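Notebook entry, structure prediction.
Reason for the run: the old model in the group folder had no record of what sequence produced it. Starting over properly, with the input documented here first.
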Amino acid sequence: MSSVEKRTVADAVAARRDLVVIGASAGGVETLRRVVSGLPPGLPAAICIVLHIAPTSPSALAGILSRAGSLPCRPASDGEPLCLGEIRVAPPDRHLVIDDGRLRLTIGPRENNHRPSVDVLFRSAAAARGARVIGIILSGTQDDGTAGLAAIKAGGGAAIVQDPVEALYPGMPTSALEHVRSKTPAKPPAKPTSRHRVRSLNCIASKPLFTPGPPTAIIERPSCRPSMRAAISEAQPWSIIPPEPRR
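New structure, fully documented this time:
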């Protein structure tokens, strides 16, 4: 393993990327809890989360995630600035939007039959921060987040998708892997091989913002690598979509 792969996510994010956006739906709460539990204190990135929830249901997600890890977490407030090392969660029946370094809560039309919508958050993050964004798709049904993840990738950001085999509901991860790729859908390998054990989130996050030439197309499933545990979560394998080359 190279020295780059051994870097922590804090080092990588501090050097290159400072906004992590996460989308999840059915089956996503436990995975979110495990993701947050693996993040180091003082992470130099803001984290914004959309979890599909009924519009009239109170959300307990912020409390769950606050107890799960070391980073403070609370529902997003309209107009507040992005805060490094903190997590904000979209409240029920409001889209969460990144607007010039601030969070906005809007009552726009439902997208993919959801408000909040993962696509709305991801598109706004791509527009606001470009290559400084890491987008993550977790368990869920249907395809919310696919278009937004494509926008993040097209802007030079990093795209990470939970392995559909490991997701309780594989619809959202499967859709992302099938559509947020060039030419052919990406299929996670049945088990890791040396060819797939190439990069973790650390390595992707540590690349320069504008990398000349096309990136190496890879899928990896680091089920128990220490670098991935430090990077995002010790719970799940992940499929990693490399950023689009800048033109």
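Summary: The longest helix spans residues 118-129.
The old model has been moved to the deprecated folder.
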